[in-house]
Write a structure and sequence with these properties.
alpha/beta, Glutaredoxin, 5-stranded mixed β-sheet, 5 strands, about 20% strand
Length: about 150
């Protein structure tokens, strides 16, 4: 049974306020992966403490401070957007399901993955710096082409 929306609404809003698109259906996730030119950041959001204390604040810091950013960012909510989450995780080939998680996808292929084990217990600044490094590695050409 999915989490009640009233329970997770605020957690969804933390990412939505950053301009990250909520994808609540399989079709929305597939559309984003197939129709994003450049790099797509896919976030598997979660109710856990590490998502609240580190991951969502770290994402906000990274997006605020990065010179290079993904061309598009989407989120699914583990435990609520069940089918959408399963679809997002299918693009994380070679990685077991985890939440929270962040994947960078370019041309439909996973190029960088942050599993729960890479995020849990980390300070938001540490997560932000890891994301900024990944953005620099995978988003720089796309960003330069847009200037």
């Amino acid at each position: 049974m999915p989490y009640p929306e009233i329970m997770i609404h605020g957690m969804r809003q933390e990412l939505a306020q950053l301009g990250i698109e909520e994808t609540k259906t399989t079709e929305a996730v597939d559309e984003a992966v197939k129709n994003t030119d450049g790099t797509l950041m896919v976030i598997v959001n979660s109710v856990c403490g590490c998502a609240a204390g580190g991951v969502r604040p770290g994402i906000a810091m990274a997006l605020e401070n990065a010179a290079n950013k993904p061309d598009r960012a989407i989120t699914v909510f583990a435990g609520a957007d069940i089918d959408a989450t399963d679809t997002a995780r299918a693009y994380f080939e070679g990685y077991p399901p985890s939440s929270p998680a962040i994947g960078l996808i370019k041309s439909g292929k996973l190029v960088q993955m942050f599993e729960r084990k890479d995020l849990e217990g980390r300070h938001p600044m540490t997560i932000a710096q890891s994301l900024i490094d990944a953005f620099d590695a995978h988003c720089a050409k796309t960003e330069a082409a847009n200037n």
